[in-house]
Amino acid sequence: MVKLYACGPTVYDYTHLGHLRKYVMDDVLVRVLRHAGFEVKFVRNVTDVGHLASDADTGEDKLEKGAKKYGQSVWDIAQTFEDYFHYSMDLMNAVRPNITARATDSVPYQLDLVKKLEEKGFTYVIPDDGVYFDTSKLADYGKLAKLDLEGLQAGARVEQIEGKKNPTDFALWKFEREGENRAMSWESPWSKRSFPGWHIECSAISMEHLGEQLDIHTGGIDHIPVHHTNEIAQSEAITGKKPFVRFWVHHNFLLIEGQKMSKSLENIYTVDDLLKKDYDPMAFRLLLLGAHYRSEMNFTWKNLEGAQVSWERLQDKVQQFLASKDQDPEPTEAQAATEQQYRQRFFQQLENDLHTPEGLAIMWEMVGDSELTTEQRYNTLLSFDEVLGLGLARIEPTEELEIPREVQRLLDQRQAARAAENWEEADSLRQQINALGYQVIDTDGDQQQVKKL
Ligand code: AMP
Ligand code: ZN
What is the 7 CA–ligand 2 centroid distance (Å)? Predict the structure, then answer.
């Protein structure tokens, strides 16, 4: 049994391709573990309160910011972008977690943890600001990120908050400022109107659903120095230093055309942007699988174009297998052994820290290996896809389209009209074909393809 916790999205704006990289690779991890025979209890949070714009516990709550930007209530913003996240992940064919938990639903549990930390003497209050965790009370604070605490003490890493005892101290609970008028606010022992800090929700939600110790915890590499460092501090302070997490999985970033995603560069794309440009989300998934999760990855439209071609090639292969696999003879012993080797090599790569690029190379080699029967190739491909998650099992054999005689006659006339460059006639014939329930698509080489409408 693997207890796995994934830091979830902050739902104040659209899920973008960078987020999708992180969450698709989490999905691959869960699939690989399950395929290897582990039972995985997969929990992911949804941050709908308390994530401040800066890691230094200053700036606006991101949800409040989103509400202003879109002119909606904070609650509506959270719902809209949580829905958009799930919609995007469904299109990426990701398996949903066993439990998805909203931060706002676990506020009482978070408050309990902060009270416990206070009882144990780990906290102090900065008046009109919040309850802070005193990081000097933990001898091994910063161990995950190997923080240079003395250097931080001497220099000013972040905008300092007045009253903080150590630069690394962080807010567990924040008080609403005069005139702030927050839409989301709760009563606490320290203030009538207050709200949780961001880090505490992950300690609370993971403990609530998975217990005091996690096997695997995932997040982006940006979470190492502050968010995850502080999650460890809180959790281990509460449980008496029992290691909070056994294995950390940190995902590297996705760049767009060599640059960081940013509003000013207008290079933040969503799954709908892919659809608008006629790319299949599975082509994007295939592209993501081509990079190891711990390496930085550079997304370019040219690479996506290449992935789309590969995706179509893979679908064609599946069609070919489907068309002929039932006529195949039983595999010989030698063929069965070859299949076994492919399976071993593929899963060895995936089970070795998710070496997806190597896995894909083995998949392509296997798909093109005529030593194997088509049935073997089809079955092996589907078992690889249990962890790659491209949804290949959903592909059904295409039926030969029977074109009615009337439609065929119009098509022939249209072909002739086009050859004579009589575009008006060709257009009118297209409309007549449409009226009969068929769509005509002009392909390269002046051919016409027909689809049922
Ligand atoms: P956020 O919603 O900002 O909390 O981010 C959700 C997750 O997506 C975090 O684990 C981030 O590290 C990750 N993330 C954000 N931007 C990118 C990116 N460009 N590439 C990869 N992961 C990202
Ligand atoms: Zn988290």
Answer: 4
